[in-house]
Amino acid sequence: MQSFSTVFFSDNSTLSLPAFNKSRLAIAVFDISPMEPELMFNVNENYDYIYSDKNRLKFYELFYNSIIDSAVTHNADVWIKPKRSSRLLRHDYLDLLDKLSGEKNVNVIPSEISAFRLIDQSDGAIVQPFTSPGYYIESSTPITFYDPLGLIQSSTTQAYGQHICFNSTDLNIWFEKLPNKP
Fold first, then answer.
1. How far apart are CA 105 and CA 72, in angstroms?
2. Rounded to an integer, what distance in angstroms lies between the CA atom of residue 144 and that of residue 64?
3. Per residue in 118-169, pLDDT tens?
4. DSSP assignment, residue 133?
5. Contacts by 43-49 with C-beta closer than 8 Å and gap 24+?
6. 3 state SS of 72
7. Phi/psi at 81 (5° precision)
8. pTM over 0.90
9. Is the separation of the CB atoms in 169 and 148 below 8 Å?
10. In terms of C-beta distances under 8 Å and separation of at least 24 residues, what long-range contacts does 169-173 make, across chains too?
């Protein structure tokens, strides 16, 4: 396992995290909020992976829907923290987040809240490959990258030794290993 220092996150400390339901698991979820393709300029080497289908939203739909399905099965609430807030974000992505926030066990929190703060108060964190919250090695909270498309190879070095769920079966096994709530 390669050792490295965690990246730093900004935090708007005037924003409070909503109270978690103490009788349910709280799962933090992090993505890379997509901007329109013409604005990317090769800043994300996973860009082709994310948009490997004609439906450019397929990745996000699979990512979130399979996490929510597993969360329901395991009596968990999902706390989605988008990576950024910007008028340059894709509108279909924002519509998806709005739709998901209507689900009973799903909460979308402001992007200005620190990933550190959310992870530290959660029972587990699921992270889009390979965005920075997945490398928060100082936390005792279980963290996994999640590849809903099953395209990432198990031999990848981009995870730097961090856990990866390669499909929804792996994700359910990861959920089962989390501490149970009373």
1. 7
2. 14
3. 999 999 999 988 777 766 777 779 988 898 887 776 666 655 557 688 899 9
4. G
5. 46/129, 46/130, 49/129, 49/149, 49/151, 49/152
6. helix
7. -120, 105
8. no
9. no
10. 171/66, 171/67, 171/70, 171/126, 171/144, 171/146, 172/70, 172/73, 172/74
